[in-house]
Amino acid sequence: MMCLVTEATTDCLPPALVDCLLDSALEPVLDAAVQRGGQASRNQKNSGAATEVARALLAVTVCDPACGSGSLLVAAADRIARRVAEARGGRRCKPLPGPASGKSDETRAPASGRARLQ
């Protein structure tokens, strides 16, 4: 496979593959975390649902054993961040351009601000 090399990164996973992997492997885990957080909030009367859902989402561990360019991990972190923002604010978030969207690195936001509310 050819790798896309730019000044900032080396992307060896096609964006469509990153999306497919995360759709099939990460999204079900995030769905289960949301359910666990909701259940925990019903069991604990002292914390709100948003707090427990966010806590469950942030407890998810993502491992990329290939440890290449990091595009898979960045996309996974982006998805988790969007879910946490949705749980805390109740609003849908749109993904920022990045490796999984096929956009160039010049349009990518810094890692500290990956998801933004619409």
Q: How many domain modules?
A: 1
How many strands in all?
4
State the end-to-end distance.
36 Å
Strand order of the largest sheet: 1-2
- Helix tally equals 3
Rg of Cα set: 16 Å
- Poorly predicted residue ranges: 101-118
Category from helices, strands and their pairing: mainly alpha
Q: Write the H/E string, N to C.
A: EEHHHEE
Relative strand content: 5-15%
The main sheet comes to:
2 strands, antiparallel
Quaternary state, please?
A: single chain
Based on Cα principal axes, name the global outline: elongated
| Helical content band | 40-55%
List keywords for this structure.
118 residues; mainly alpha; two-stranded antiparallel ribbon; 3 helices; disordered C terminus
Task: Summarize the model shown.
The protein is mainly α and 118 residues long.
Account of the protein in words:
- This protein is mainly alpha-helical.
- It has helices at 15-43, 49-58, 71-89; strands spanning 4-5, 10-11, 93-94, 116-117.
- The strands form 2 sheets. A two-stranded antiparallel ribbon has the order 1-2. Strands 3-4 form a two-stranded antiparallel ribbon.
- The chain has one domain.
- The radius of gyration is 16 Å and the shape is elongated.
What secondary-structure arrangement, pairings included, does this model have?
Layout: E1 4-5, E2 10-11, H1 15-43, H2 49-58, H3 71-89, E3 93-94, E4 116-117
Antiparallel strand pairs: 1-2, 3-4
Helix pairs in contact: 1-2, 1-3, 2-3
